[in-house]
Write a structure and sequence with these properties.
With 202 residues, the protein is α/β, with parallel strands linked by helices. The longest helix has 14 residues. It has a single domain, classed as Rossmann fold (3-Layer(aba) Sandwich). It is globular. β4, α4 and β5 form a beta-alpha-beta unit. It is 35% helix and 16% strand.
Length: 202
C-alpha cells in the first residue's frame, strides 16, 4: 500500500463549479495526496436530490477536468451511481479499500460538516479507519473546528490551513442559469456551453 492518500470527495456536482475545483486543486497540492476521486451522488440521495441526471453530471465533470488540466490525478468514480440503494460514506470507503487494496483512502469534508460527523452512519468505525482532509470555509477558517471539539478528540485529520477558497453554491448557480444571468467564471466556459446546448436547469 502506498503512503500517499487517494482522497474521496463526494457531491452532487449539479452543476460542477469553480468552488469544487478549488477544493480539488488544494487537495492535489498536499504533499500527502496522490489522487482525488470525485464521487457524484446517486439519484437516491434524500437530502439534496440531484436536479439533472447522473449522465449529465458525469459529463460536465469530465469536460471541466479536461478544461482545467486536472484529469491526470483526478478520477471520476461512478460507484454511487451503480444502484438505487443508499451508499453511506463508511460503506463507500470500505468498498473502495477492498477493491483497490494498493491504495490508501481518505475522505474530504467541509469544515462546516465536522460537528455533524457524529450523526453519520457508523461514524465511530469511519473515523477510526479513515483519515479526513478538512476543507476550510471562507471567512470562517477555524471557527467550525472549535465547534467540533467532541469529534476532534477521536479523528485523524489534515486541515488545509490557508488554502484558497471560493464560496459559491450549485443552488445559486442553477438560479442564475434559470434567470438567464451570467455564470462565468463560476462555471468553466465549456461546461457553460454544455449546459446551454442541453437546455439544463431551465
Amino acid at each position: 500500500m502506498t503512503d500517499k492518500f487517494t482522497v474521496v470527495m463526494g457531491g452532487n456536482f449539479d452543476p460542477p463549479h469553480i468552488g469544487h475545483f478549488f477544493c480539488v486543486a488544494n487537495l492535489l497540492n498536499c504533499k500527502d495526496v496522490e489522487e482525488v476521486w470525485l464521487v457524484p451522488a446517486g439519484d437516491w440521495r434524500y437530502d439534496k436530490k440531484p436536479v439533472v441526471s447522473a449522465n449529465h453530471r458525469v459529463k460536465m465533470l469530465e469536460i471541466a477536468l479536461a478544461e482545467l488540466s486536472l484529469e491526470e490525478r483526478t478520477v471520476i468514480s461512478k460507484k454511487q451511481l451503480e444502484g438505487k440503494d443508499k451508499c453511506y460514506t463508511y460503506d463507500l470507503l470500505t468498498a473502495f479499500s477492498k477493491e483497490f487494496k494498493e491504495k490508501n483512502f481518505a475522505f474530504a469534508i467541509g469544515e462546516d460538516r465536522l460537528s455533524d460527523l457524529v450523526n453519520w452512519y457508523n461514524y465511530k468505525e469511519l473515523i477510526k479507519q479513515f483519515k479526513f482532509f478538512v476543507i476550510p470555509r471562507e471567512e470562517k477558517e477555524g471557527s467550525f473546528l472549535r465547534e467540533a471539539k467532541k469529534i476532534l478528540k477521536e479523528i485523524e485529520l489534515v486541515y488545509l490551513k490557508n488554502a484558497p477558497t471560493c464560496s459559491v453554491s450549485s443552488t445559486y448557480l442553477r438560479q442564475l442559469i434559470k434567470e438567464g444571468k451570467v455564470i462565468l467564471p463560476f462555471i468553466t466556459p465549456k461546461v457553460s456551453s454544455y449546459i446551454v446546448k442541453n437546455g439544463l436547469y431551465r
